[in-house]
Amino acid sequence: MDKLVIEGPTKLAGQINVSRAKNAYLPILAGVLLNPHPVHLKNLPDLRDINTIIKLLGNLGVKITKSGNITTFDASNITSYDALYDLVKTMRASILVLGPLLARFKSARVSLPGGCAIGTRPIDIHLENFKKLGALINLEGGYVEAHTDGLKGANLKLSFPSVGATENLMMGAVLAEGVTVIENVALEPEIDDLAYFLKKMGAKIEGIGTSTLTITGVKELKECEYEAIGDRIEGLTYIMAGLITGSNITVAGLNPKHIDQTLTLLKDMGAEFELGEDKVTIKSNKLKAIDVETSPFPGFPTDAQAQLMALTTQVEGKSKISEKIFENRFMHVPELQRLGARITLKGNEALVEGPSKLKGAPIMCTDLRASAALVLAALASHGKTEIHRVYHLDRGYEKLEDKLNALGANIQRVK
Ligand code: EPZ
Q: Does ligand 1 come within 6 angstroms of the Cβ of 52?
């Protein structure tokens, strides 16, 4: 297992570019299964999670070819409807193949994703709404077995604006007979991106960007080329890397509107930014403490909670961070405490007292975004920090150490 060795504290300078968004491309890749004609995707990021779903698509019979920065997926001849446990257990977003397989082939057998470090991650909202679209769902031996005579449009209302459930049901509805109305959908930018991808393939979707989507089923989709949005969570991670090291860097390749609320929160802490069309430049970073709770978009994203916590260890005052989306997303806390952070936990609330002088130490990744928080803290820590189990980090950050070293960080990956 690789580890990262980081010498700190360091200053950073220059511009860092985000890759295309993991959480936009994962549902888009599942959506490839809807189309009997080739789909050409541009600049797929080289991430473990992306490579896992590509392997899964290959196992189902999708032909995959690459030329330059374009990867072509040909799902004209699907030979299996089984998404097997050994892949799904490593990447729970594999459940997103359920909707496309049901919609196009009327059958799917997908391993229950199982929980992950940050929570039980149930899929009840997905399943109860597929039943309303005419699917027979049976849970057998750790698998979801789903069959239908053909999905039929229906009026759905999500009990919670679940990102994955919204994406799965959108894709199911695209080929369903008649009209599907889905209320209380998630509003994350990745949902809009999936909708634009589906429309580019010929799907009929109204209400993009609102809480209610109206999808009119079509018979067949057509060949298309698509490139996903920039990764807003990767972008926020780098903005916080600049803030935690007191560096005025530029983060490029993302739409600043996708992180508007978080930029406002960071400005409330005292940060100043200059916004471009597809970039954010830090202008000043004298920060003070903040109280925040995570919530569905457009609120403060749970995927940036760990990174913000690392940042608050370095600012003057007491910050209160409440995690309202997942039941166990504080596993970065003991690791940050090993570096000297002063954090006390009360249920789903973390109280952070700053600034603390952090000192390098061996620490361990537990989940994707916790890993990013550890890297940020290590950049601001005095001495050498060893970060173990970086395979968690590699799920969602492409060439992280190369990108940060290009700004002046001192990060070595040790095999
Ligand atoms: C997506 O996960 C993201 N993953 C997560 O990012 C992100 O943290 C999450 O949305 C919230 O923004 C991808 O897009 C691949 P949810 P997802 O369904 O779809 C509960 C990362 O770091 N729920 O919106 O699984 C669930 O337990 C990852 O890149 C149900 O109860 O999130 C959770 O408490 C981590 N029943 C809450 O809703 C369901 O059927 C949010 O889950 C579905 C969800």
A: no
pLDDT in tens, 211-265: 999 999 999 999 999 999 999 999 999 999 999 999 999 999 999 999 999 999 9
Q: What is the pTM of this model?
A: 0.97
Atom number in ligand 1 closest to CA 301: 12
Q: Provide the CATH number for the domain around residue 314.
A: 3.65.10.10
Give the model's pLDDT for residue 36. Answer: 98
For the CA atoms of 306, 24, 22, 89, the dihedral, rounded to the nearest 10 degrees, stands at 90
Catalytic residue ranges: 116
Q: Alpha helices, DSSP H only, in 18-97?
A: 22-31, 48-60, 85-88
Query: Going by CA atoms, what residue is nearest to atom 31 of ligand 1?
Result: 122
Beta strands in 112-168 (DSSP E): 136-140, 143-147, 155-157
CB-based contact 24:232 (threshold 8 Å): no
Tell the residue nearest (CA) to atom 27 of ligand 1. Answer: 121
Which atom of ligand 1 is found nearest the CA of 188?
A: 12
CB distance 160 to ligand 1 below 6 Å: yes
Domain co-membership, 164 together with 290: no
26 lines ligand 1 (CB under 6 A): yes
126-161: per-residue pLDDT in tens? 999 999 999 999 999 899 999 999 999 999 999 999
Range of the domain at 13: 3-19+230-414
In angstroms, the CA 281 to CA 131 distance is: 47
Cβ(205)–Cβ(173) below 8 Å: no
Euclidean distance between CA atoms 222 and 92, whole angstroms: 28
Give the residue from 191, 226, 261 where a domain finishes: 226
Interval 272-326: pLDDT, tens: 999 999 999 999 888 999 999 999 999 999 999 999 999 999 999 999 999 999 9
